[in-house]
Amino acid sequence: MGERPETLHEGVDESWRPSPAPDAVTAASSRPFRMLAAALVVGGSVGALIAATSVAQSDADTSRATFVTSSGAVASTLQLAIESEDALLVHASGFVLDHPESSNAEWVQWLTSRRVFERHPDLERIGLLVTLTPAQLPAFTIRATNDPSGPLEPDGTFQVIPPGDRPLHCFVAVQQALPDEVQIPAGYDFCADPAISKIVVTARDTGQGSYLPTLEELGKSGLIVQVPIYSGGTVPLTVAARRDAFVGLLGVQVGSSNVLDRALHGHDDLAVTLRFEDEYSEAQFSSGTMPEEWQSATFDLENGWTVETFGTASSDRVVDNRTALMLLGAGIALSALAAIGLVLATGRARALRLVAERTGELRHQALHDALTGLPNRALIMDRIEQLLARNRRLGTSGAALYIDLDDFKSVNDTLGHQAGDQLLVAVAARIAGELRDADTVGRMGGDEFVVLIDGATTDVAPERVAERLLQAMRHAFVLDGATMPIIVSASIGIAIGDRCTAGNLLRDADVALYRAKAAGRNRYEIFHADMQSEILQRVELEFELRSALNSDQFHLVYQPIYNLENLSLVGVEALLRWQHPTLGLIEPDRFIPILEQTGQIHDVGRWVLDEACQQMATWHASGDTLDISVNVSGRQLDGDDIVDDVRRSLADSGLDPAALIIEITETALMRNTNDTARRLHAIKALGVRIAVDDFGTGYSSLAYLQQFPVDCLKIDRTFTSAITTSAEARALIGTLVQLGKDLGLKTLAEGVETTVEIDHLRSKHVDEVQGFLLARPLDPTTLEALILVPARARQPATSATTAPGSASHK
Ligand code: C2E
Ligand code: CA
Ligand code: CA
Prior knowledge:
The protein is α/β, with parallel strands linked by helices.
């Protein structure tokens, strides 16, 4: 179907950026290109058909046209879903090749760090199946016993299931599945089933991946996409060499009904069947209800996939269903004939215009994101190929910027998908507004965008572009129906220069993006080769965190909180620090997310509560009456244990419950509303107070907050730090304080660093303040020096922050 490659580049993207030079078509033999070309040809024939029906102008034709248009949209959504799973396999095989001996924990860590399950909402499982000869079994048994990919026997041993001698064993070496998926035991031997054994051997020997309906072993209907992986990264030329270099079969399991339901979203009147067939496998999935009287349309997505859609047939049709079907199936040649027919019937000019309009529309649909109108993943990949080719030819250097909004999920969760969609459209427009004509922006899905900077004409450094984009995000977004403007930030990963494929350039930009997120978000990072190893360092941190609690490597520092009116000291916030034996002092932003992911936050959080209550009780015993604020992570609120933990910490320390304040971030509050509210009420009943931390970043409304027993709002420090630069931030602080007053809550502003800020906060009647201007977090000894000297105890510790020792605690 690649007979007219130039059609891809001619005017496909009229609504957005000028098309690149046609000579970049050399890169066009790639697979995405073939899929695009196929979509275009399908689009061409469909377009012609629609043109024909429109011209005939009967109701039935209109209904057919509508049907075909929606069918085209459904087909292109499915095509993108398939491509996205293919892209995931490419990405994951890169990891497997770089880490052939990866442990299961490293595998899970990698998936988590790349947010793979978040980015692929249809993904249910991803793993690597390896083959072993009986001679290799003992070594694998040792490895799998220490680092199993799934449950072992109840006695902790690794046993082959079902037992037996076989020429070839197939085990899952590493995997991760969604929690409600079937657990595959580590010893489950897939090759005990001759049919599966044949699939595995065929894949290994041919180098061909395939699509399968989910295995019975996995208990439900779905789609498995699998590809063989060979050391060296390419498929060796001979069968013998393939057997030699075979690493394993990388597989993803996708919930086919999710994929189909998503494609049918907004097309309630359609049913759809997705089919795959090639030499090695076939599979079929359906969704939606078949109408009694139906018409259908078939789309060939190439490389084995077909989509058939079904809609209600119109009673009184001029064009017979079957004819329409034939027209559709016959592709571009027949669409040309249809156009000739039109010419005869209605006059050349009008017919040609209609054909052009409709064809353009469908072509646009296949290559653009429906929400923002930006080029989609498929078109972006093609554009990167062109960019790389052009830069190679001219000896220049382009760049890809991978942009991801920070915490977009909480916008969706709290304001709803409609607001989320509105925000994405607004973000897309802002990004586009910052670019030059030669640059391209596309949406990769979700809250991810890619900007391509054309090196050929550039004198602009990609870093400058990234800075401009970050700056552009800093102005609030005003959405219809939302109570307040929204402030979002973004993180950007940049990859500059040549790569052998578009996929590699994007992968590197994505690695840099991950770095930008890990370094605190709202920033950009440029890819460099060491970054892969930094990701591994994080894996190491995770391992070392396991023993940190038992080896007493954690300690608390305390940051003073002041009454704003008279600057008297009213309390302290306990903040966790990790003193690593070789890496030194590690800040919580680097390790708390890991503790949350691994679930260790429960134990560590309990320790923090105990330690903080103990310390404050000691200070109370010597005559102080300060409050102590303790941060509790959202994960800790996932279970009822937290209530007992608080009760026990109070009982063990003897601390007055009225002196304890539990801080919960606004986003954590939003997560599991009913259970969270119930647990907070139980904590509140102990006499403890509750503060909403990082307030303003979660966009909750007055009505929403009312269901929680909250005492204080801690206004996030991004608002405080924007006081001098942003009129919007100043206005927002006013709104947030007013919200607190309406609810009868105390308000506290975090992160006060300048006198301008503190003056502004005073003018807004904020009750309490906390920040480096007044005092940094201090270790207990330094703090005692402040507290125990009555004359100074109630004054800001500004001078003390410059004293030796105290400044080292950020
Ligand atoms: P947070 O709860 O918002 O804590 C305030 C953070 O702001 C602290 O960072 C503090 O050092 C910093 N800060 C205070 N004043 C200023 C200022 O004027 N300017 C600037 N730039 N920063 C200021 P830290 O200690 O690094 O903690 C970071 C986050 O880690 C905390 O944010 C909290 O979310 C989390 N965290 C810390 N300790 C714990 C803990 O024991 N449990 C849990 N679950 N989370 C904790
Ligand atoms: Ca806090
Ligand atoms: Ca905070």
